[in-house]
Amino acid sequence: MDFNFSDDQNAIRELAYQIFTDRSSDEFLLAFSRTDDTYDETLWQTLAEQGLLGVALPESVGGAGLGLVELCLVLEEQGRRVAPVPLYASLVLGALPIVEFGSAEQQQLYLPALASGHAKFSAAIAELAMNPAVVTTVTATREKEGWVLCGDKAVVPDGAVADFILVPAEDGAGRQTLFIIDTRIPGVSVQPLEIGLSGYRAANLTLDNVPVDDHAVLGAVGQGARLLEWLEQRANIGHCALQVGVTEEAMKR
Questions:
Q1: What HEC string does the chain produce?
Q2: Which pTM was predicted?
Q3: What Å distances lie between residue 48 and 23, 26, 103, 120, CA to CA?
């Protein structure tokens, strides 16, 4: 079995390396850290223009139609430069579940905006790594025309800039369902949260009687636990790819 990367994969890695190296130099990052900005919007748009935001998205929504390996190559290069863009949250936590479980309508509604750099995504799944004693929950109450969501989710990665957040919620029977929540609708509150030296790159999420229709349900009702298990595996892989870039550059220096 040949474990070497293909020509296309090497081309993606080289393109990502060039973009991150040219933009996120040490000098730029030092100057950037002295501003009030948390994210480099110029770099985000460059990644969109070069097709890297859509590397793991289907061609039908403006993506490249590639997969997790190619996505991890991009994440590795981001980690190498510690570039301040919400790639992991948007491309792994947000996009991959919509690609895998979203309806054709959901994919057409959300994914082209990500590929073009006009929308950012995340998922409220920090409780997967939390002590059960401090886990927060969201409840989903069935109504005639949809659902009403109430509750809190802590430490949403890159939640401070996310336009859409995937939120697991429990119904009265204890079943979990995953919802795609637009952070701009009434009742949704996002409180930026400063973590370490990274600045306000996470957020606490509050849902106060937020009405959503059935089109916001990702997958099937009651399928949330299976979707979260699927997402957790890919979230771990994506996070490892970032850290490979970070540690390789640290060892080099």
A1: CCCCCCHHHHHHHHHHHHHHHHHCCHHHHHHHHCCCCCCCHHHHHHHHHCCCCCCCCCHHHCCCCCCHHHHHHHHHHHHHHCCCCCHHHHHHHHHHHHHHHCCHHHHHHHHHHHHCCCCCEEECCHHHHCCHHHCCCEEEEEECCEEEEEEEEEEEECCCCCCEEEEEEECCCCCEEEEEEECCCCCEEEEEECCHHHCCCEEEEEEEEEEECHHHEECCCCCHHHHHHHHHHHHHHHHHHHHHHHHHHHHHC
A2: 0.94
A3: 14, 23, 23, 12
Q: Report how far residue 143's alpha carbon sits from residue 131's, in angstroms, rounded to the nearest whole number.
A: 32
Task: Report d(CA 57, CA 52) in Å as an integer.
Answer: 10
The alpha carbon of residue 252 and the mean position of all alpha carbons in its chain are separated, in whole angstroms, by 28
For residue 186, what are its two tokens?
A: 């009434």
Residue 46 has pLDDT above 80, yes or no: yes
Record the tokens describing residue 212, joined without a space.
């959503």
CA 52 to the chain's CA centroid: 14
Beta-strand relationship, 176-182 and 202-212? unpaired
Neighbours of 22 (CB within 10 A): 12
**pLDDT of 213-242, one tens digit each?**
999 999 999 999 999 999 999 999 999 999
Provide the pairing of β-strand 164-170 with 121-123. Answer: parallel
What residues have CB less than 8 Å from 204, skipping those under 6 apart?
Answer: 152, 153, 154, 155, 156, 159, 190, 191, 193
- CA atoms of 77 and 72, how far apart (whole Å): 9
